[in-house]
Amino acid sequence: MKTIAVTGGSGKLGSALIKELQQEGYNVTSLDTQRSNELRCRQIKVDLNDFGQVVSALHGAVAVIHLAAIPAPLGYPYPYIFSNNVVSGYNILEAASLLNIRKVVVGSSESSYGFAWAPSPFSPDYLPVDEEHPQQPQECYGLSKIVNELTAAMFDRRNGMQVISLRFSMITKPEDYKHLAISKPEAFKNIFWSYIDIRDAVSACIASLQVDDRGAVCLNITSSDTLSDRPTAELIEQFYPDVKDLRDPFPERTAIVSNKEAERVLGWKPRHSWADQAAE
To answer: Where are its TM segments located (predicted)?
Structure first.
């Protein structure tokens, strides 16, 4: 049975992913700074900033899904957030290279584009925001994600390691939707009303694990609709009237961040929407 190492296994996405991997027949090892009573797999407490610990913890794995990180520019000094996220990412990839692990999936973020946490808000160059849009963060978290994506590309150049970086939008659970300000569009303006249901985030991780010969790629992982009950064209007109380069039509509640490349590369599509939950 193939062993998959999941860093951040005790976290929201990590724990949901591990349970699904086990359902699909994988053996899973969780790497985290703490143990979880909810997980029924091998758990290793590891400091990902210690390269020796990382090498030891990854021994025996055939692939890695690296989700551990400080998830926002909040709660810690900025230099620590940047250092933690970048060093741990590098250590995972260096250890995988040393152990001849050929597949790594890395949790990146739409925050790398710079809009979500920008102290000086700005508009996109064009819409929809796809993977070719410039990444222009103004803070440490988005920058750390860019550095990890560049590090992934380096390891692909070095030894052909497949590293798929998933730029997750805001990850939501089904029970979250009733608490979100979906009828207040200003609440999610800075993230373009972008979100991803945790079940779809899990399926994107597994699709990335199962696909072959993709090298180092970065993919938006977002829903196909917006986290708003208003038409997308109306949202753009009200909140981003300065964006004149509209490269796709936006009927009904079509997402402003594109997931078309993930569909092309992974054969993946999101299946869940807040609107379905509301209807239930």
So the answer is: none
